[in-house]
Amino acid sequence: MSKNKFTITITDINGSKHFYLSRIIKKIVFYIIVFIFFFLVFSGFYIKYLDDKLSDLSRKREDLLRKNQELIQSNEQMQKSIEEKTQEYAAIEDKIISFERALGLENEQNLTINDRLDNLKLTNEDQTKILSQIPNGFPIANKGVTGSFGWREHPLLKRREFHPGIDLRAEIGTPIYATANAVVEFAGYSDNGYGYNVILLHNFGFKTVFAHMMRRDVVKAGQYVKKGDLIGYSGNTGLSTGPHLHYEVRFINKTLEPLYFLKLQRNNISNFFNQERRVPWQSLVKAITQRQIIPVQKQQSSPQVQE
């Protein structure tokens, strides 16, 4: 009588072959043990590899956090220094103005823009030229302002910084239009916190900046656009707390209050010139209209008799 209770017999033209079930089970168990062994060895090496990678990433993260902290401290010092210098310059300007008034000095520089433009009548054609050359109006549908121009606490970095533009409420995908004739200076993604942004270069030294836009190429650098042309769509890219459009107006490296330009229309153009005094409007208007602006002279108390 055979000791093996279970056998498998396979018969073909070459004869019959017998396979004992106990041997098959032993081979299967052996292969399983070998597989588990190699799997455990491989897993051990792979876990060690991942652990080394994790340690390396942790070191890099600590280095980046340290450098970031150093940059934050350096930026805070620079912002504080800029603020102090700005306050000093403002105080100096106030003292100069007070000193000139005390001495009764009233030269051409003391005349307001309205005084200078009293003898210049802007025609509809002149106004059209001005409004096509300098930024004016809203670049998107006006749904309100979420962030003002000037000093504020950064909503993400939680430190006091100067906000060089204005934040306009906008859902993702809101069309954005050029606010004046321009050439596209830049269109792409930036690592300065602006995300995908477009910079338009206008005539007479003006620039407009559109930041946190949807990552979609509508215009490209070097392309000419007219006022009202589509330049992109609002988004939430870069250092942003939510969907909106960050909009800036610049004049020769000076950041200007965008709100004045957003509200600029034909019927308030004179008030606009008086609001924004950091731009030499006299020469600009003269260049656009090609007319001579005559300063207002003081009236004499009594006419002089010529001999």
From TrEMBL:
<keyword id="KW-0472">Membrane</keyword>
<feature type="domain" description="M23ase beta-sheet core">
    <location>
        <begin position="162"/>
        <end position="257"/>
    </location>
</feature>
<keyword id="KW-0175">Coiled coil</keyword>
<dbReference type="InterPro" id="IPR011055">
    <property type="entry name" value="Dup_hybrid_motif"/>
</dbReference>
<keyword id="KW-1133">Transmembrane helix</keyword>
<feature type="transmembrane region" description="Helical">
    <location>
        <begin position="28"/>
        <end position="47"/>
    </location>
</feature>
<dbReference type="Pfam" id="PF01551">
    <property type="entry name" value="Peptidase_M23"/>
</dbReference>
<protein>
    <submittedName>
        <fullName>M23 family peptidase</fullName>
    </submittedName>
</protein>
<dbReference type="InterPro" id="IPR050570">
    <property type="entry name" value="Cell_wall_metabolism_enzyme"/>
</dbReference>
<keyword id="KW-0812">Transmembrane</keyword>
<feature type="coiled-coil region">
    <location>
        <begin position="47"/>
        <end position="102"/>
    </location>
</feature>
<keyword id="KW-0732">Signal</keyword>
<dbReference type="InterPro" id="IPR016047">
    <property type="entry name" value="M23ase_b-sheet_dom"/>
</dbReference>
<dbReference type="GO" id="GO:0004222">
    <property type="term" value="F:metalloendopeptidase activity"/>
</dbReference>
